Amino acid sequence: MKKRVLLAAPRSFCAGVDRAIEIVERLLAEHGPPIYVRHQIVHNDHVVRRLELLGAVFVDDEDEIPAGEICVLSAHGVAPAVRENCEKRGLRVVDAVCPLVSKVHAEARRYADTGHLVALVGHADHVEVIGTRGERPESTVVVESPEAAAELDSDGRPVAVISQTTLSLDDVRATVDALEHRFGTLTRPGADDICYATQNRQDAVKRLAEEATLILVIGSQTSSNAQRLVEVARIAGAEAELIDGESPLAEDLVSRHDVIGLTAGASTPGELVDATIQRLAALGHGEVVEVTVAREDVHFRLPREVASA
Questions:
Q1: Catalytic residue at 210?
Q2: CATH assignment of 100-193, among 3.40.50.150, 1.10.1040.10, 3.90.110.10, 3.40.1010.20
Q3: Could you tell me which residues are beta bridge partners of residue 215?
Q4: What is the pLDDT of residues 169-184, one digit of tens each?
C-alpha cells in the first residue's frame, strides 16, 4: 500500500479562537506592549509564546495586572465576580470570550433565574466550566459522568442541562441520557448553541479512522479539545498520539503505518500542521489527501474596542 497522509478538514483554528487571537494582536498594534491577558488566550503553547514575544503578558489572576491597564478576558470566559473585580481595580476590560461560550453563560443565568437546577456537563477543573458555574453558583452543579448524573439530587427543582463547549454532542450524550432517565424531560438549549467546531473536528477524526491506522493530533497538553480528539481516534480503532507540531516525529512510530491521519485541535495554528506535513514527507509519507466532512464559514464580530483598529 502506498504511504499517504489523510488530512482532516476542518481542523485547526475555529472562529472563536481566530477572534480571540486577533483581538490581542490588534490591541498590541494599537496600544503597544504590554497588553495583559487573564489566563492563556487559547490553550496552545505555540500561540501563547508568539504573543508573548509581541508583548502580551499572561496572568493567572486579574489582581496581577496594574490598575488602569488593559485586561483581555480569554476565549474560555470568566465568572461575573472576575469582571466585577476588574471594574473595581480600574482595569480596561476587553472581552475576547468566544460568543458560543457567552451564549452558554446566558443560558445558565436564564435557567437559574427561572427556578431550574442547572446541570453543567463538563470537567469541573476546566477554566470554561469554572467561569460558567460562576454565573449562578448556588443553582449550578457540574456533572462529570453518567454515574454522577444518576446520583444527582435536584431537591424538587426542574433540571436544565448545558455543557462545556469543548465537548461534542457525542461526548455529553451518555451523561445527558442519564440525567433524562433520572429526571424525565430536561430543559435544554437549541442545537445552534452547541459548538460546531468541536463536533466537526471529532467527526473528521472518525472519518480518518476508517482508513488510517495512526492518527496524529496536533495540540498542547492543556487543550481539552485536542486531548479529546486523541480519545475519539482511539475509540474508533486507530492508534493515536498527541504531538506539539514542533518537535521531531518518532520515526519508528511513523514507519509502522502506511496510512496516517492528521488533524489539529481548535486552538492549534495551521502553520504547525504545515510543518508536520513536511516532517511526514521527509519520512516517506509525501502524498497528502484532504478528507472533508464539513465546511465552516463562521465569523464572529470583534468587540468595539478593536473593531476599528
A1: no
A2: 3.40.1010.20
A3: 240, 261
A4: 888 999 999 999 999 9
Sheet (strand 56-59) strand order = 56-59, 35-38, 70-73, 92-95
Q: How far, in Å, CA of 100 to CA of 97, rounded?
A: 8
Class of domain 15-98: alpha beta
Query: According to the CATH classification, is domain 4-13+196-292 in 3.40.1010.20?
Result: yes
Q: Shortest CA distance to 42 belongs to which of 77, 5, 6?
A: 77
Active-site residue, selected from the candidate residues 128, 211, 251, 305: 128
**Contact 218/273 with Cβ under 8 angstroms?**
yes
What is the value of pTM for the model shown?
Answer: 0.92
Q: Kindly report, residue by residue over 47-84, the tens digit of the pLDDT.
A: 999 999 999 999 999 999 999 999 999 999 999 999 99
Domain with CATH 3.40.1010.20 in the chain: 4-13+196-292, 100-193
CB 2 within 8 A of CB 25: no
